[in-house]
Specification:
mainly beta; Pnp Oxidase, Chain A; 1 helix
Length: 134
């Protein structure tokens, strides 16, 4: 059987603080395309990739006195970039991001939840962490 990765092992950190109450996280990576189609290439389009971008979307449960939630709140209100780390076993993605969206969802008779959308500000680095105790 294939070695399947459970999503629960994917951890999001902001400024080196684990985001408590995290329910989910999506790391999106994309690249713009440049059309280089010309008359010589017959009837087929050709492309090159260009500038890359990345973003993270995460949902969570509000945890009272959560340092990470305070980091989110402060960074959003002050337009301050945060350091982001997405860890999947020994594969770690790191970068700096801006919080572009931070809705809070307080519905009657259910948990208080939030969503945060982070837009990468520069390179998303990929590292292999050989320290398995982290």
């Amino acid at each position: 059987m294939a070695d399947i990765q459970k999503g629960i092992n994917i951890i999001l950190k902001l400024n080196n603080v684990v985001l408590g109450g995290q329910l989910n996280a999506t790391l999106s990576r994309s690249a713009k395309s440049i059309d280089i189609t010309n008359k010589i290439d017959d009837e087929w389009s050709k492309y090159l990739t260009s500038i890359k971008s990345w973003r993270v979307e995460c949902g969570g449960l509000y945890v009272k006195n959560s340092v990470a939630f305070e980091v989110l709140q402060d960074a959003f209100m002050s337009n301050t970039p945060v350091e982001v780390e997405v860890k999947l076993d020994n594969l770690v993605y790191t970068g700096r991001a801006l919080i572009t969206d931070f809705p809070l969802n307080a519905v009657f008779d259910t948990t208080f939840k939030y969503t945060v959308r982070l837009l990468g500000d520069g390179e998303l680095k990929t590292n292999v962490n050989t320290n398995t105790g982290d």
